[in-house]
Amino acid sequence: MTERDDDPQLRALLSSLRDEPLGPEDAGDFAARLHLRLAEAGTPRPLGMFARTTLWLRERPLWLGSLSGACTGLLVFALASALAGRGTPTPPARGADRQEPLKVLAAQSACPAPPAADVETSVEVFVVPAGKVALVQLHFAVDRDIEQADFSVLLPEGLAFFSGGDALPERAFHWSAPLARGDNRVPLALIGAQPGRHRFAATATIGGEVVVHEVVLDVQGPV
Amino acid sequence: MDQAALLERAKQGDLPAFEQLLSEHVPRIRRFARAMCREQADADDLAQDALIKAYQALCSYRFQSAFSTWLYRVVRNAFLDHARSRGARERAQSRALDSEDERMPDAAPGPEDALAREQLRALVWDALRELPLEFRSALVLFDLEGLSHEEVAAVEGVPVGTVKSRLSRGRAQLRAVLAERGVLGSGNAETGEIVQSRSTP
């Protein structure tokens, strides 16, 4: 017996709902009103670069798998922050009206290979073959849902954002997204266009606090 | 013109192309909305809101699934957002039926009678609207609209096993509500298993 045969009495009742007239508005009225509302809504919204990148990555799981296996092109940096103490209101410090700052609970790299060298303690260096796409994953761990976090990445000459199969001319990338309690991963695809060490910063503004994480991509080999 | 060509034109803002893509889905989406709103006019407003969202988000559709699956997912999410909103809950409460309305009349005419059928359908819709959203959505897509388990799973973004679980628990709960109102007998073994907790994927 298939599930569609279960409880025929109940299923007959549910099926009868399909026979119901759809109300005083007939299909023509509904279509006409929908047409007007769609026309008012304008054309479909073009995808932002973040959405394009996410879709592009989602469509290529095998490609990403081999990239991950090769390790060389895969770059991950972790940026964990938390809004400790901001879940419940607390009295402000005497004479101060600023909000309690974010506390960084952890900041760890999930790169499969250790950084090639440290430029400074807070900067991670990753080797990337020239002309290969590197997947950067931003990790944000927060202790509660955040309605809107603002992100910003500014690339130097020599690095480019990569989306839809192409290197993009834009050098700056700003976007906003909600963060769910726990770990949030934001993918970013970059390509090393010129050999050399290229430093860039990813900035996140969460609840009025700014977290900056610097990354150095060491682009090696011929383009 | 095939669906891919229509989609490309619709993404460029060709409204008639989008309307052509929608045409076969509109009746289902209007019924789906009915599971969220008691009044057909409210349901139609909700269906239109959801379809506008789908139009605006059309560029995110890249053939990663069937267009219908993507469309139902966008629409379902819009419906669930609406149903979860505070205002929607308050409206639903304010429109709760009184007990007289919820009972099938003892002297109901035969099944051919249009009025009796309309009353019966209204009772079933009301009972459906009392189910948790996840159960309601699965029941409407599977039992009412005839989607497969796999299609419902794709729309809901959950495994097939979760869909089957939601269907089973949703039917049990629906049967219990309908039995309580005298619409169905209580002969089914599942009748007493009223599930109050929300489903977990």
Structure description:
The complex is a heterodimer of chains A (223) and B (201). Chain A has 223 residues and is α+β, with helices and mostly antiparallel strands. Chain A contains four helices and ten strands, in the order ααααββββββββββ. Chain A is elongated, with a radius of gyration of 25 Å. Chain B has helices spanning 3-11, 15-22, 26-34, 40-56, 67-84, 86-94, 99-102, 114-129, 133-144, 149-156, 160-180. Residues 91-111 and 187-201 of chain B have low confidence and may be disordered. Chains A and B meet through helix 1, helix 2 and helix 3 of A and helix 2, helix 3, helix 4, helix 8 and helix 9 of B.
- Assembly classification: heterodimer
Helix content of chain A: 10-25%
Total count of helical runs of at least 4 residues of chain A: 4
Order of strands in the sheet with most strands of chain A: 1-3-8-5-6
Summed up, what is this model?
The complex is a heterodimer of chains A (223) and B (201). With 223 residues, chain A is α+β, with helices and mostly antiparallel strands. Chain A has four helices and ten strands.
Protein topology:
The complex is a heterodimer of chains A (223) and B (201).
Chain A (H helix, E strand, L loop, with lengths): L7 H9 L10 H15 L7 H10 L2 H10 L6 E2 L44 E7 L3 E10 L3 E9 L4 E5 L2 E2 L4 E8 L2 E11 L3 E11 L2 E12 L3
Parallel strand pairs in A: 1-3, 2-10
Antiparallel strand pairs in A: 3-8, 4-7, 4-9, 5-6, 5-8, 9-10
Chain B lengths: L2 H9 L3 H8 L3 H9 L5 H17 L10 H18 L1 H9 L4 H4 L11 H16 L3 H12 L4 H8 L3 H21 L21
